[in-house]
Structure formats: structure tokens, C-alpha cells
Amino acid sequence: MSKVLIVISDYYKDISDYLLAGAKEKLDDKGVQYDELYVPGAFEIPAAIVFSIMSDRSSYNGYLALGCVIRGETDHYHYICKGVIGSLGEIAIQHAVPLGISVITADSKERALVRADKNQRNVGGSAALAVLRMMEICSQFLK
């Protein structure tokens, strides 16, 4: 049975809750088991995934990164976005693990909420479907 670790930034908890609801709905529809792991912010998501990958106790077939970064008045937004998305891409490639990413980068909370809501854009659900497809591809070549 397939199992996914969902790593969720709870910095913008209302947005993360929407992302998680959309992702869980898709995983439940496919009968995929999952665990949830909360981290303080989007920046911590890649490290948590690597901790799991490198653990002797890890039993996950894929990883799902959920969170949000909203533009503020400083350049901080750009550095966090680039660091998080770049690190997640490197993890997927260097560790050859299926990874779905729904870390919203938005100009406002309102725009982020539209993208996160499972009854609107449902990017959490889309990321869940992406990791499931990547798990299929991975099993074709690496298992």
C-alpha cells in the first residue's frame, strides 16, 4: 500500500487548512494512506522532507509539500520563495523521490485563499494528483 508524507507549513494556517483538505480528498479518493507533519513555516518544509528521507524509519513512497508565502514590503518574500521551491526541486532530483508541491506564492492573502480552496482552484488537490502520478512513474523505473 502506498503512503505519502504531507508536510504542512502552518504559518498561514487558514490557507494550509484549505490546501490540506484538497490534498486529502484526492488521496482518500485513490485509497492512499498519509501522515501529516506540521512545520513552522514554508522555509522548514524541505528540511523536514530530507529528515524523513534520510531516516531509517521512513516508509513513504512520496512526499507532498503544502504551504504559502505572501509578498510583504521587503525582499524577504523573494528569498524565501526561491529557497523553498529551489530546495524542493533539488530534493526530488537528488534523492529520486516523488514530490508534489503546493507552496503558494501570492501577492495577497485573498489570492492565496482562492488558489488553496478545494472548491475553487484546489492547488492542494492538484499537487496530490501530481505526487501520485510521480509515484507511478518512480515504481516503473526504480522498484
TrEMBL record:
Keyword Thylakoid: no
Keywords for the protein's UniProt record, in alphabetical order: Riboflavin biosynthesis, Transferase
Catalytic reaction annotation: (2S)-2-hydroxy-3-oxobutyl phosphate + 5-amino-6-(D-ribitylamino)uracil = 6,7-dimethyl-8-(1-D-ribityl)lumazine + phosphate + 2 H2O + H(+)
EC number: 2.5.1.78
Main EC class the enzyme belongs to: transferase
Keyword Metal-binding attributed: no
Pathway involvement of the protein, from the record: Cofactor biosynthesis; riboflavin biosynthesis; riboflavin from 2-hydroxy-3-oxobutyl phosphate and 5-amino-6-(D-ribitylamino)uracil: step 1/2
Gene3D superfamilies for this protein: Lumazine/riboflavin synthase (3.40.50.960)
Active-site annotation: 76 (proton donor)
Binding site for (2S)-2-hydroxy-3-oxobutyl phosphate: 73-74, 115
Entry binding sites for 5-amino-6-(D-ribitylamino)uracil: 11, 42-44, 68-70, 101
HAMAP family found in the cross-reference section: Lumazine_synth
Name the UniProt record assigns to this protein: 6,7-dimethyl-8-ribityllumazine synthase
Lineage: Bacteria, Pseudomonadati, Pseudomonadota, Alphaproteobacteria, Rickettsiales
UniProt gene name: ribH
